[in-house]
Automatic annotation (TrEMBL):
The keyword Nucleotide-binding does not apply. The modification 4-aspartylphosphate is found at residue 61. This is Response regulator. Keywords: Phosphoprotein, Two-component regulatory system. The keyword NAD does not apply. InterPro entries: CheY-like_superfamily, Sig_transdc_resp-reg_receiver. PROSITE patterns: RESPONSE_REGULATORY. Pfam families: Response_reg. It comes from Tahibacter amnicola. Gene3D superfamilies: 3.40.50.2300. Residues 12-128 form the Response regulatory domain. Coiled coil: none annotated.
Length: 139
């Protein structure tokens, strides 16, 4: 959907994924939707960038170098600005134990790769999840 047709306000989105191609593809889609997007490629960069800019939405891969997405999520949730941030795990890890770990770390949703872009768009825009099993129950 072009940015000028979007009924939702643009979000400040941080993407953290050590797979640069994946991060860049996702960033391109989100920018097309009118969002401001920054990308980083490891967990420490994700935490540093969040502390600098306090994104509205953080999309975290779980298996990243330096700090895992789980560690980053926990650290973000312990900051005043991170309490209301929408945290979405975007990962190849989709077992129930992985979903439990992300829930316990403070993620709002757990999406498995390849990501359903329509679901991701609805989550970022704050629309109800239509019942897919790709996301966690609302916290």
């Amino acid at each position: 959907m072009p940015a000028h047709d979007s009924p939702h306000r643009p979000r400040n989105v941080l993407i953290a994924d050590d797979n640069r191609d994946s991060a860049e593809s996702l960033a391109q889609v989100l920018r097309f939707q009118g969002h401001q997007v920054r990308m980083v490629f490891d967990g420490q960069q994700a935490l540093d960038e969040f502390n600098r800019t306090a994104a509205d939405v953080v999309l975290l891969d779980i298996g990243m170098p330096k700090l895992s997405g789980i560690e980053v999520a926990r650290l973000i949730r312990h900051t005043p600005q991170g309490r209301d941030t929408l945290l979405i795990a975007i990962t190849g890890w989709g077992q129930q134990s992985d979903r439990s770990r992300t829930r316990e770390a403070g993620f709002d949703h757990h999406l498995t790769k390849p990501v359903d872009l329509s679901l991701l768009t609805r989550l970022i825009n704050g629309l109800p999840d239509p019942g897919t099993n790709q996301s966690l129950p609302a916290a």
